[in-house]
Amino acid sequence: SECRWDGQFLLNCSFTRISTIPEDISQTAITADLSYNNIKTFVCSDGRNEEWMLKHLNLSNNLISELTLTTCTNLPILETLNLSGNAIHTLTLDMPTPAHGSKKYSIVDHLLPALKVLSVERNNLNTVPRGLGLLQSLQTVYMSSNAIQQIDPEDFQNCSQLKDIDLRNNKITKIHPDAFRDLNKLQVVLDLRENALTIPLPQILVSLNFFQLEVYLSKNAW
């Protein structure tokens, strides 16, 4: 391919018109830039047990529509994952398993244990991806410019390390009063600008730490 490799840490495949992930990515690569291509699918693990040393993976501005991260057991030190500017409508982080006729979400062990930043801006998400709490190191999540309509109490459950949530420019009309409860480290930004909120939010905001948190609410329907 036309990918450029510095021989040590950086793989740059951006703007190379590739449609699949190169199979010969060096396991020593720290950063892989695969942005602005024609990639439609991304599978973390292809059955091999080798672990990648990637810390930063950029898959932005491709053609990915569905993505499952439950197989990402071979990226133990990945810190940033950029999926912005795709066509993702389904992002799977947990695995539903039947339990007494209902859906029970099982824990996925070792799911991207070092991931701190997840960016899924400018996609086609209708809901917040289920299972964000499985990403135990997650500190920042960017979900602006999607089609998210409401925030449920389970959406950020167990996201104990979250500091920054960007939900700007969605279609949010409803936020459950307990949606951000127990996010004790949320101390940077909660961005809800450019949505469709019509009701006051005192129940939601009362539990947040206003001394450390910036909350943006402009350009809503009220």
TrEMBL record:
Q: Which domain of life is it from?
A: Eukaryota
- Descriptive protein name: LRC66 protein
Q: What SMART domains would the database entry show?
A: LRR_TYP
Instruction: Name the species this protein comes from.
Output: Brachypodius melanocephalos (black-headed bulbul)
Any Pfam family hit: LRR_8
Q: Which InterPro entries match?
A: Leu-rich_rpt, Leu-rich_rpt_typical-subtyp, LRR_dom_sf, SLRP
Q: What's the encoding gene here?
A: Lrrc66
Print the keywords alphabetically. Answer: Leucine-rich repeat, Repeat
